[in-house]
């Protein structure tokens, strides 16, 4: 049988990414151009700057991916592109690039939800076995997603305010750490001890929803109060305390959902999945459970296009096709 090659294109935030995967799970090209340096001095992603960078980088990243894979257009079976959610101007660059290639070379177009992409990063590591749960923790999303089969997503819990990554980035800012703050808090937390008492938002009994804004405010107030009293905070202890609070809630709710939904597999997904404390805590919690825990390598946790191609392959095989009227959808539901 002929090999299936799907290209993925991802531009939802501050990474211009193009990848090509073979037969659903083998990466043959994976190129990511990060814009982090340009956004750092603003302490966050500036949408207009992001769009401009995507325009500049798109063709370069695309050509690099084609070279890496050593393929030509006739080899590509489909182009999968992130339709949303994300920054509308940023998404539009990827969507239009994908449409242009699809139109010019008569290659089928497939629209992918960014979070579906994060979840399918796991398929590049291991075959999925259903039913499964995915804990999605990124800069914009914190969700527990139930999947009974490929391409079927049921959100059983989500954040009511800040996403986990957003809370990491805001706390990092309070500690004067550079953007994006997640990796810095992660590193500091390894050096400190969770000595500071911070809240954990469990919400109503049985709820799989999350809330991180109270925790974030609590960290900010703690720093403020100590500074006012002329005392200094040990940033590593504050980072460790904050991280412990986030991890406690994420792990406890994921374990509870795993038991209630009797799933075979649990997949970790999203940028915060790169967090060493979270990875370790999940591994420990799942050690004695009869469930297969899958944690992708760091490079597949943060935004990339291989994950979009992986989700795109499944949708392509299910017959999903997007037309030339495909538009960016910044508020797209999973
Ligand atoms: O999935 P992602 O690359 O982009 C979105 O779709 O949002 O996630 C980015 C988020 C940022 O908030 C960043 O601070 C966080 O992931 N992050 C981390 C770590 N690495 C990245 N958070 C905690 N610990 C990390 N090691
Ligand atoms: Zn993402």
From TrEMBL:
Residues that bind Fe cation: 114, 118, 303
Entry GO MF terms: iron ion binding; tRNA N(6)-L-threonylcarbamoyladenine synthase activity
Manner of cofactor binding, per the entry note: Binds 1 Fe(2+) ion per subunit.
GO cellular component: cytoplasm
Any single GO BP term: tRNA threonylcarbamoyladenosine modification
Residue stretches making up the Gcp-like domain: 26-309
Enzyme class: transferase
Iron in keyword set: yes
InterPro entries: ATPase_NBD, Gcp-like_dom, KAE1/TsaD, Peptidase_M22_CS, TsaD
Enzyme Commission numbers on file: 2.3.1.234
Binding positions for substrate per the UniProt entry: 136-140, 169, 182, 186, 275
The keyword Transferase appears for this protein: yes
Membrane-spanning ranges: none
Similarity comment: family membership: Belongs to the KAE1 / TsaD family.
Name of the featured protein: tRNA N6-adenosine threonylcarbamoyltransferase
């Amino acid at each position: 049988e002929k090999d299936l090659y799907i290209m993925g294109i991802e531009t939802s935030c501050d990474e211009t990414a193009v990848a090509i995967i073979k037969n659903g799970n083998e990466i043959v090209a994976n190129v990511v151009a990060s814009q982090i340096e340009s956004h750092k001095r603003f302490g966050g992603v500036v949408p207009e700057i992001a769009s401009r960078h995507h325009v500049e980088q798109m063709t370069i990243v695309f050509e690099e991916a084609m070279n890496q894979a050593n393929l030509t257009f006739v080899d590509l079976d489909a182009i999968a592109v992130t339709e949303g959610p994300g920054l509308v101007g940023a998404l539009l660059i990827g969507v239009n690039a994908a449409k242009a290639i699809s139109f010019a070379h008569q290659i089928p177009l497939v629209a992918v939800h960014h979070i579906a992409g994060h979840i399918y990063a796991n398929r590049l590591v291991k075959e999925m076995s259903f039913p499964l749960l995915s804990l999605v923790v990124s800069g914009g999303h914190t969700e527990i997603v139930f999947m009974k089969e490929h391409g079927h997503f049921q959100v059983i819990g989500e954040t009511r305010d800040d996403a986990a990554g957003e809370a990491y980035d805001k706390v990092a800012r309070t500690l004067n750490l550079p953007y994006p703050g997640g990796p810095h808090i992660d590193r500091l937390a390894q050096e400190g001890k969770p000595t500071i008492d911070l809240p954990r938002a469990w919400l109503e009994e049985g709820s799989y929803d999350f809330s991180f804004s109270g925790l974030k405010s609590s960290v900010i107030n703690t720093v403020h109060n100590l500074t006012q009293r002329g005392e200094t905070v040990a940033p590593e202890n504050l980072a460790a305390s904050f991280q412990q609070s986030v991890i406690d809630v994420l792990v406890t709710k994921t374990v509870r959902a795993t038991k209630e939904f009797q799933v075979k597999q649990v997949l970790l997904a999203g940028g915060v999945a790169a967090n060493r404390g979270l990875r370790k805590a999940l591994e420990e919690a799942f050690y004695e459970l009869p469930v297969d825990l899958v944690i992708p390598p760091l490079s597949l946790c943060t935004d990339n296009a291989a994950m979009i191609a992986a989700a795109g392959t499944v949708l392509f095989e299910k017959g999903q096709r997007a037309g030339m009227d495909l538009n960016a959808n910044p508020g797209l539901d999973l």
